[in-house]
Amino acid sequence: MKIRANNLLSALAMTLDLAQKASEIKVIEDFSRVKYEYKKLSNHSMQCTYIAMELCNELNISSKIRNRVYIGSMLHDIGINSANNYYTDGSTFISDHCKSGAKILSTFPKFNDLSDIVMYHHENFNGTGPFKLLGDLIPIESQIIRLSDIIDTTYYESTSPALKDNLINWVSKNQKIFSSKIIEAFLSLSKKDVFWFNLDNISNYDFIFKKFTPEFNFDITLNEFLDISYIFSEIVDMHSSFTGKHSRDIGDLSFSIANHLHYDFEKCIKMKISGLLHDIGKLAIPKSILNKNGQLTPEEFYLIKSHAYYTNLILERIEDIEDICDWASNHHEKLNGTGYPKRLSKNSLSKEARLLAVCDIYQALSEDRPYKKGLNDDKAFKILYDSANQNLICKDSVDILKLSL
């Protein structure tokens, strides 16, 4: 099985953008005085990448570096969700999310040689950035992303000529932050109305963005996707103080069940991936709600329920994994049609989705949380069989889980 690199990058970028929209981070970068308030940004990864690609065109960048800029732009903020949501010190946040992002990307298959691009995407040309790199010691890819990031963060989506002019003037006067050639490229680009029109519309019309998307000459194998799934499962579980290693444990349970059922090895790996990624949509939920130590309001519970919807939205974007998407995103559906988010009934739920739902409930009952001690198997399976008798979950799946442990 092969997964197209462009589809995967698009899904990962969407995941990061959803996480940023849920972020409560609000800081001002010390040197540039740029205000980073991520929840106000929309499709930041895509728009930053679009700007970076246009800058590459102006700079006549080689296709090899252009591809590195594209991947680096799409994933430049991968470290944000590993950082504390409640930073007040801008310099600490900037350096921490750069270091976290570089560390995460260094473990990626295919993309691990790009970690320095993410590490240094907040460096200033005069050496006043978080890691004090000076001038062209800063990778050119990082320099391009630096400007692109600031433009999108500052610009939002506005048709105000005054805002554009202020931004253009600000960039032109900041040779301490950007090199002269990067500034010249932007000033040339900024004269083209089509650049601003595209920036205003790119999040609404995918075909605009696709014009600037490189065609990569490689795919992602299933085993490489498994490695990436492990990385994102850890990011998901770090997002909530309550979940520990919940996603990894669901992945192990799913794999164990698949083995017990004598599925072929590829399907066993797919089941593991579905377990690892079943809660990836939780990245779209603010930490303050996920970590609330008390009863949720109806509005907060509604937001919590949306995580299964976002899991589907993210995985559906990959296109090459329809089965994994089905199994992972339907883990809160019920046989009697009372689940969420689609209210599917038993005739619409695959065997694998039913199994994953049972694994999810069992693991939640069995694991320790800050507010409770995990149940032993006798108590956990009593609750599972009670739920099965109420036509909520599949009794056969409960039996299979019990036999596979």
From TrEMBL:
SUPFAM superfamilies: HD-domain/PDEase-like. InterPro entries: HD/PDEase_dom, HD_GYP_dom, HDIG_dom. Gene3D superfamilies: Hypothetical protein af1432 (1.10.3210.10). Residues 221-405 form the HD-GYP domain. Pfam families: HD_5 (PF13487). NCBIfam families: HDIG (TIGR00277). This is HDIG domain-containing protein.
